Amino acid sequence: MTDNKNKIYDLINKLYIEHDLPDEDLLFILDNINEKEKEYLFSKSYETRNRYYGKNVYLRGLIEFTNYCKRECNYCGINAFNKKANRYRLDKEEIIETCKMGKELGFSTFVLQGGEDVYFTDEIMTDIIKTIKEKIPGCAVTISIGEKSFESYKKLKKSGADRYLLRHETANPDKYRELHPLSESRTRVECLNNLKKIGFQTGAGFMVGLPNYTNSDYVKDLRFIKNLQPEMVGMGPFIPHKDTNMRDCKPGDIDTTVLLLSLIRLLLPKVLLPATTALASIDENGRKKGLDVGANVIMPNLTPVNKRGSYSLYNNKKSSGSESAEALNSIKKELESYGYICNMSRGDSKMCEEFN
Q: Cα separations (Å) of 193 from 142, 186, 227, 230?
């Protein structure tokens, strides 16, 4: 036991200094780390985040603009086969007005997130992005609308989009097929590589606690992220949705999620790392726990209140149900009580500096 204990601390120190470990060492940590060793690991990831970002927590305005989706993802409450979903779309004017309202509140980044909705063609999306950039000079626009062709991504980038979020979900192709019976993991990986080639600040990520997932699977996810070098990693617990095939599956847990967030911070010290809504949904202190191990992004919901409940990806999604100004003030007070700084600038990834 003493040898294992010393080995864990040695591996954490090596990861802290070199920002990488062989896969077998990452697996050893996941298989053997105890609570005291976790505290040490978390202190190192906390310190690493502070070295590059200080106590800044970047706030992005999230706009869930459509819950129509053509995909079949088994875990997702807005998948194409869920007839119980209350479908909606925001039109261009509603999206622009929501962004303007967000700007008045102080937001400098807007995240347009939706299902893979065939209504929103390249032409419609590029028009929306151009208009946001025109109406709110200097803002950053993040898009999260799934798999597209290389040419479509190029058009979105040329129109002014800065960032693109596309979770890889799982680096295990067999698990990916279980989650997406009509899709291939290689297509998702190709999309992520294309986004990087085109010059997007790119976000990948995976879910924690998928059925029959193992620590070896998590190591594959960590290695995929390390190799891809995304500027952002969106990672949170799996939470089942009552109207999906995975309704009876056990959700992911807070402890494993926080452990993996800490490891990601050390593998990619300059990455932007959200404390996700799902994290806050499974634990009342989930947001703080994520921030305290190195997360540094929160995405308050700017979606019109009467639509928020319909963007239901999983059960018991945390939502204030309040107007955006009220919710923002609540988040600011919460962050200040934890000792963090609410930063509403563009907050570009420090990883971008390495290539400039």
A: 17, 10, 11, 10
Residue 143 token pair: 């898009």
| Contact in structure between 101 and 93 (CB atoms under 8 Å) | no
Interatomic CA distance for residues 13 and 42, integer angstroms: 12
Instruction: Say what angle helices 215-228 and 23-32 make with each other, to 10 degrees.
Output: 140
Tell me: pLDDT of 332 over 80.
yes
Burial group, residue 163, by CB count within 10 angstroms (0-12, 13-18, 19+): buried
Average pLDDT of the residues in 125-133: 98
Q: Which helix (H) or strand (E) holds 184?
A: none
Residue whose entry in the numeric block shows the structure tokens 């053997």 = 32
User: Is the CB of residue 294 less than 8 Å from the CB of residue 262?
Assistant: yes
The C-alpha atoms of residue 316 and residue 240 are separated, in whole angstroms, by: 9
The CA R_g of the chain, rounded to the nearest whole Å, is 19
pLDDT at 315: 52
Residues near 146 by beta carbon (within 8 Å), at least 6 away in sequence? 69, 71, 115, 116, 166
The residues with which 109 forms a beta bridge, in sequence order, are 140
Packed helices 122-135 and 92-105: angle between N→C axes, nearest 10 degrees: 30
Other Cβ atoms less than 10 A from the Cβ of 166: the count is: 24
Helix (H, G, I), strand (E, B) or coil at 261: helix
Summarised one tens digit per residue, pLDDT across range 41-62 is 999 999 999 999 999 999 999 9
Q: At 237, is the secondary structure helix, strand, or coil?
A: strand
Residues in the chain: 356
Q: What is the pLDDT of residue 313?
A: 59
The backbone torsions φ and ψ at residue 233, rounded to the nearest 5 degrees and listed phi first, read -130, 115
**With contact defined as beta carbons under 8 Å apart, do 294 and 273 qualify?**
yes
Amino acid at 86: N
Distance CA 164, CA 144 (A): 6
How are the residues of the chain apportioned to helix, strand and coil, as percentages rounded to the nearest 5?
45, 15, 40
Q: Is-contact 24 308, C-beta < 8 A? A: no
Q: Are 168 and 206 in contact (CB under 8 A)?
A: yes
Spatial distance between the Cα atoms of 135 and 220, rounded to a whole number of angstroms: 42
Q: 103 with 344: CB under 8 angstroms?
A: no
